[in-house]
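Researcher: Let's try something more involved. This one mixes different molecule types, so please make sure each is placed in the same coordinate frame as the others.
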Amino acid sequence: MWIEKQGNIIDFTLSSLLRRKRKNLALISVYMLVIFFFASVMFFTHAIKKEASIILKEAPEMVVQKMAGGRHELIPLGYIEQIKEIRGAHSVKGRLWGYYYDPVAGANFTLMVPGEGEVEQGGIAVGKGVSRVRFLDEEDEMEFMASDGEVFGLKVKQIFSPESELVSSDLILISEEDFRKLFGMVKGVATDIVLSVRNPKELSTIALKIAERLPDTRIILREEMLRTYEMVFNWRGGMMLVVLSGTLLAFIIFSWDRASGLSAEERREIGILKAIGWETSDVILMKFWEGTVISVSSFFVGVFLAYLHVFFLSSPLFEPALKGWAILYPKFKLIPFIDFYQIATLFFFTVVPYTGATIIPSWRAATIDPDSVMRT
Amino acid sequence: MRKSHFFLFYLLFSMACGVLMLVHASMRSRAELPRLREKTEMVKRFGLTDLCLFTEASYTRHPSQADFHTPFQNHPVALEHFPSGSILAPPPHLKMRSVRESVSDSKNLKTLTGTDTNAETDHVD
Amino acid sequence: MNMIQLLNIRKVFNMGRPNEFTAIHGVSLSIHPHQVTALKGPSGSGKTTLLSILGCMARPTSGRIMLFDREITSLPERFLTEIRRKTFGFVFQQFHLIKGITVLENVMLPAYPGGEGYGALRKRAMEILDLLSLSKKASSRVEWLSGGEAQRTAIARALINRPSVMIADEPTGHLDSRLSQEFMQIMGRLKQDRKTILIASHDPIVHESETVDRVIEMRDGRII
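Model: All components are placed in one shared frame. Result:
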């Protein structure tokens, strides 16, 4: 009974929608595009955040940087001893890292000295992105220009796997000797200092102690590094917003026209339905199905396309924004961290408002007297 | 075929695809675990602090290590020089409020972040 | 037994406003079952208003309505709609078919909210269309119908819920004499099927037709 009634009313709704095939198809396409865009952003953002939160859990617990004139400066290794004296701080180490602008590719690389014995003097290990822009294979030599103008070659000993590009794409691991030679960095200084804390509860106490003892430093906690990536995609402006607002605007105009502006023709039809024995609730039920058919059709297709876009094709539409001015563009495939709640959220923020916007304006039209048809 | 049946089939088909998508996602993310571990291992071994997303400038390559001497200091909602600025917000340690949250002791805030008062007026919103 | 009984019905439009006017002035009337009753009168005489009150489409301002000796004047809308759907079939002056959908769908439309099985409903609709020699047109859109075909589609639609009462408002207003005669023939057939028929019309073809059992003349909202 109930199901038959829904079936009958859906039959009529679909016939009625098919009458304005082009208009409704255009509406569905724009709607789909909006959902596709929102879903893509959502999938991408969530996947990046999730992956960052997993990967960066292993980042240094605390980074100590020396500041001079508001800028990050090289830190004297003597600071290590001073930090070691603080109870609870352990594995205090100096880090050596920096940026190298490669005039050949026109790209920026991140150079880093790993722990003892990782890279021998004269050799380097490079990320996939570096090997891509410099056409490097293993055992090839890559030339660097040192700070004194001397050009010297280092042999590529290892290329990191493409799977690790999200952390290693522009990375060049280099020995300490070569690093100091390249940048003309004297012994006794490091880029910054990293340390671990034995008891996580003491984190802020230790941070404060370091700040007191070494007033010219600033401290970056791992928690802050993690939070940096929680703020990825915050829509504070720029081209993504421009792209999005375009589609959104088109969609609002469309749905405004469809939903709120019931045409004289539609009002007449509602009058006929009332006259031939439909109740107000039946008319509203029909409008509900109309909104549902349009939004659900758009919703699923939009979500599937977004899934395809982000996790199979590596978000080509976001590429211009992600790439920006960078010459070296990391290629990574995101892990599809999606869950039911994400999709439910998207559903409630798109399908529900649209369906509501279709029903509410028809409410008034649906309460017209059935005899209005006879009076015209 | 009745139109409503067609719609019902379409709906069921879509829902099935949706379930399939979730299943695929969970299978893929499980299959990716070794590679995820590889990345995690790399971060641990080399002491990395950031994801390699934007290589155009130091503060986009290592946003978590950025200092105040970067375009982020202009204004938190300023249009960025680089397109990536529209995607990535200024890191929390450059915004005083976040630091205040992370170290709940706001008395010692200035000593902790080691910044001058000038920077503070810039970043408290 | 009376089919429908009106007791001292008054209908006022735009009550309390400057353009207030009274369409029906205290009409009492009984409609007998299995008869064809015609309401006759010039336009503005209150025929259509009385027809919509008889068909439970509009509520009177005052007075009482009895259907099968049961008082229905103050029933809530939901019940009234259900009674209307089950008891009455309407044919409107302009037919009021829904454009863009097929003849068959138009005919089935009044039965949709009833929740009847699609197969049974479709079969019944086809039977009615067959009866009115429209089965060939079942899947054509209503815009492509001739005047007579549209008229018969409207009749078929009125019949789908097996009503005991047929109500037609100026049914011949848009038809030529031949089609008007044809309409009255169909009404004659329905009368034989023991349907009660109410027609409002100022067309002499209707009043003078043999099918019509009773002519009620109206003027200025009163029965003469």
